[in-house]
Structure formats: C-alpha cells, structure tokens
C-alpha cells in the first residue's frame, strides 16, 4: 500500500490500519520551579467505521496531547501524553475512551501519580513528577492536561 503524506504529517502502522497525524498546535506554559512545558496536539485521521456499525450518524475522532517537561537547559526531563477517542454528531460530543503514556528522560525524576479520565467531551490527564536527590524529594511538578472535542469533531 502506498500512502502519500504531506510534509507536515507522519504515518505510523498500528494494528490493521494506518494512523496519519499532524501536529496542529503547540503551547508553552511556564512552571513555578523555573521549568517549562511544551504541549503539542496531534489529531489522528482514522477510518471511520462508526456509521457502518451504528445508525446514529455519529463520527469518531482520536487524538492526543503531549506535555514535554523541560528544565532551564532545554532538556526534556519527562513526557506525559493524554490520548482520547471521541464520538460526535454535529450537535453533541462525548469522550468514549481515555488513556495515557509517560516516560522519564532523567533518572533523578519519578512519576508519583498518573491518570486518564474521560469526562463529558474531554479526556483529562493528571500527573505528578518529583525530583529526588539522595532519595529525598526536592521538587514537585503537578499538572493536568485536557484534550477536548467540540460537536463538529475539532480537537483542542
């Protein structure tokens, strides 16, 4: 199978079909400890099989928001991604699934909590990471990332 991809997108084979996504927005937030986070939004264009299975004229949209926690040397110390799947009709939208993935790039940091929750038209991810020196926590970053979908399937 040949897939033509514009220069601002990438493809990944997953299961029995291909996801094509593009980063649509980037946001930067400064944290109280001098660190900052870069948040990217990616939207997946997947085959929509919902109308075949379901006669409600709803469509499905999936995407993710990723938070890259960076120190003042611009090094990424941790990454947290909230993923969501949404069903929308043009007059309503609901989050049907939420999950997260995470990684640590600096061994002094550890995730102490992580969660993903579907809530209305949003997938909400919460996390806490801590910096440990000699096994004593000396810094904490707690954050919440929300991936939302409007009634027309637009992610934010």
Topology diagram in text:
Blueprint: E1 10-14, E2 17-30, E3 36-45, H1 50-53, E4 59-70, E5 76-88, E6 93-104, E7 109-119, E8 122-133, E9 136-148
Antiparallel strand pairs: 1-2, 2-3, 3-4, 4-5, 5-6, 7-8, 8-9
Describe the overall structure.
- The structure is a single chain.
- This protein has 156 residues and is mainly β.
- It has one helix at residues 50-53, and strands at residues 10-14, 17-30, 36-45, 59-70, 76-88, 93-104, 109-119, 122-133, 136-148.
- The chain has one domain (25-148).
- The strands form two sheets. Strands 1-2-3-4-5-6 form a six-stranded antiparallel sheet, with no helix packed on it. Strands 7-8-9 form a three-stranded antiparallel sheet, with no helix packed on it.
- A hairpin with a 2-residue loop joins β7 (109-119) and β8 (122-133).
Query: Quaternary status of these chains?
Result: single chain
Mean pLDDT across all amino acids: 82
Q: Reading side by side through the largest sheet, how are the strands ordered?
A: 1-2-3-4-5-6
- End-to-end span in angstroms? 31 Å
Task: Please provide a brief summary of the model.
The chain contains one helix and nine strands. It is mostly beta strands.
Defining key terms:
mainly beta, six-stranded antiparallel sheet, 1 helix, elongated
């Amino acid at each position: 199978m040949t897939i033509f991809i514009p220069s601002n997108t990438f493809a990944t084979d997953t299961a029995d079909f291909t996801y094509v996504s593009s980063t649509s927005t980037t946001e930067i937030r400064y944290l109280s400890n001098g660190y900052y986070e870069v948040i990217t939004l990616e939207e997946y264009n997947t085959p929509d099989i919902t109308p075949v299975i379901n006669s409600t004229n709803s469509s499905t949209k999936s995407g993710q928001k990723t938070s890259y926690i960076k120190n003042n040397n611009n090094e990424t110390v941790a990454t947290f991604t909230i993923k969501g799947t949404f069903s929308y009709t043009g007059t309503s939208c609901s989050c049907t699934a939420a999950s997260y993935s995470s990684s640590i790039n600096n061994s002094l940091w550890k995730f102490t909590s992580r969660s993903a929750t579907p809530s209305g038209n949003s997938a909400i991810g919460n996390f806490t990471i801590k910096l440990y020196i000699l096994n004593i926590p000396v810094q904490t970053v707690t954050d919440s990332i929300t991936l939302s979908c409007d009634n027309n399937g637009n992610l934010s």
